[in-house]
Amino acid sequence: MTPEQKAEIEAARADPQPTLRAVSEGMEAHLYRAHEVLDHGFVRVIDYMGDDAAITQAARVSYGRGTKAVSNDEGLIRYLMRHWHSTPFEMCEIKLHVKLPVFVARQWIRHRTANVNEYSARYSILDREFYIPAEDDLAAQSVTNNQGRGEALTGEEAARVLDWLREDSTRAYDHYEAMISQEGQQGLARELARMNLPANIYTQWYWKVDLHNLFHFLRLRADAHAQMEIRVYAEAMCKIVADWVPLAYQAFEDYRLGGAQLSAKGVECVRRMLKGEEVTQETSGMSKGEWREFMGVVDA
Fold first, then answer.
1. Where are the transmembrane segments (predicted)?
2. How many CB atoms lie within 10 A of CB 186?
3. By the number of CB atoms within 10 A of the CB, which of 25, 107, 240, 290 ranks highest?
């Protein structure tokens, strides 16, 4: 972030306001502060609503006497998470300011359950900032996953790729600036000139979402199979959410991030294995891909 942006954030944090609404002490520590991600990106909390108590309060209104068997808030939250009762989690919301590469934003925007307002390159000029991967993050195409990475690039090939990424990004932005310049020419409209910019240029947006849909986002994007460049944002957000709603996050971590879902065939295979039967892919009724994923869960 620029020194001006940092000064603005510190000024906001230095001027707290009294409130009668529910406050999460863990989240208060994150308000406005930018958590750096990648080489130029960040995530920062602009506002939030609710806490763990908001979840249980909504659940008890919804289920009434049915919750009397649940002895405490933690137990109730774990029950809700375990049985996929999502509505009470929608009572909490968060608004984030995110700076991210455009190609990451295009993955992120597929989660259509949030409110988004993005920096507009139609009337504003994008900064000369590009995501350039660390050499360790350059990898070849995976031979088993069409949308994943395989072995790391090394030596001259890795150096050549990094040089091209830097050169192409710089050249595209130079031409962008030249096209919109009005010195000695009319200057191309910004909404047209932006088409020349690479997908690794940084954009920014405000992203507001309820906790239920945020958990869905994190379950997919904090997963080891997610692309690294979006996963690091999800991991930064996980730390924020863990401080905001610790009971809900613990349940989410246990049942979603750390849990596993089995098909009916998978459950049947586990039962057969527990009885001492030797089960193979050929006798499981699963495809090779299903069996590989199943064994990834049950094979210690």
1. none
2. 7
3. 240
Say which of 44, 78, 221, 256 is annotated catalytic.
221
Q: Say if residue 109 carries a ligand binding annotation.
A: yes
- Our answer to whether residue 256 is catalytic in this structure is no
Residue 291 counted as an annotated binding residue: no
Tell me the pLDDT tens digit for each residue of 69-98. Answer: 445 899 999 999 999 999 999 999 999 999
Is 119 annotated in a binding site? The answer is yes
pLDDT tens digits for 186-244? 999 999 999 999 999 999 999 999 999 999 999 999 998 899 999 999 999 999 999 99
Query: Is 272 flagged in the annotation as binding?
Result: no
> How large is the average pLDDT for residues 152-175?
95
Domain boundaries, the chain: 3-131+200-257, 133-199, 264-298
* Architecture per CATH, 3-131+200-257: 2-Layer Sandwich (3.30)
